[in-house]
Specification:
alpha/beta; three-stranded antiparallel beta sheet
Amino acid sequence: MQAMAFSDLPFTDDSISFVHHPVVLAYLQRYAQHHNLLQHIHFNTTVTSVTPRNNKDTEGWIIRTMTQESQSERKEEWEVDAVVVCSGHFFEPYIPREIEGVERFPGQLVHSRDYRTPTPFIDHVCVVVGAGPSGVDVARELSGVVKKLYLCTRERDAGLVKGAVGDRFASAGLAACERVTGSVRRVTPEGLVEFSDGSVTSERVDTVVFCTGYYYHMPFLDPACDVEFSLPLSKESMDEEDAEVEGECAGRCVAPLYAHLIHIRHPSLIFVGLPFKVFLLTQTHALTKITHTHTQILPFPCFEVQARCVVELMKQHPQLFWGRKGEEGEGETGLWTRKGLEAAWRDLLEAWKQKGLPQRYFHLLGGNQWAYFKGLERECGITEPTFNWKFLEEVYNDVSNARIRDQQGYRNLVYHLKAESWKRIE
């Protein structure tokens, strides 16, 4: 908890480090009050559309909203110079569509988004699909109440099940569950589940829980915004996983963006908070190097450094955001021009083809998030770091290793953080 705070407001309670969501919500509410932000927030309001402003000279945006009032709905239209999308990406659940027989399956299919407690699954035969943090956490909770538990992991992810410090499944208390390497291929009217390795459950399955992540879903963006939710790759240059489900790639990423952040053709359309765990792709200004870790991103520091970098860019390169269309402005060369961003995007796409990774990994960060944060600050001309990144990285790595060693008990650890030092209390 202490490591995920914004730079200008720490958490108040240092007697516990792993907290439930009400504590995080209270922190965000306190942050909004501390900075007097509530006056700027339009509650009960839905953005129904974001459309480019019809102006041949300068870029801008038309935002349409609908506010739910006590007895009616109020519609409004706003004309703005820039749009920052901060809507998150843990809402629209991804459930593989290629599974055969779903319409006749007598059991229930649920997504981890809707999972709350293990109580409804007592004495069930359950299949948990996915071995990321959500999959392992859900499986651990279910293992104590279900009759039988299958844990299904992709072939690509099978190498992640053993960390440098022991077997993370065993450390999570899942040594007795039946592990299947592959994916769910088919479900039958009799309630059986067939996996891609050819194996079939030995008894009727009551529930399949998909811990398979989320789509990037932004229905308010008009097609004229020129935002794509998949990469412009031919089937020949796709990863094998993407090629098999070519029609399902939409929603796996947001493009075309520089540094997961700025639309390369409409720089005043900005996306904060897209990155998440596991991989970082980075090399100069083209994200190309893959580093493999099974760790989480620090969300609030990520949001803060991205927001700060956008503000600095707007100050230093106003012509990029609000200049007349087709003009770069005097002295505007290099990366922070439309041509520079287009070139960086082409380099990134070419590098992505060479790596052969699925599009669902496009925004994934993780243990190398520090290189991303520091590199972004450097490219945006920020000389005073937003955080002491080396300090945060030390704490973060210690937590990651503790989780690998003991996935059941690591949340009992307490971390005390001071300006330049930290200690772990067992």
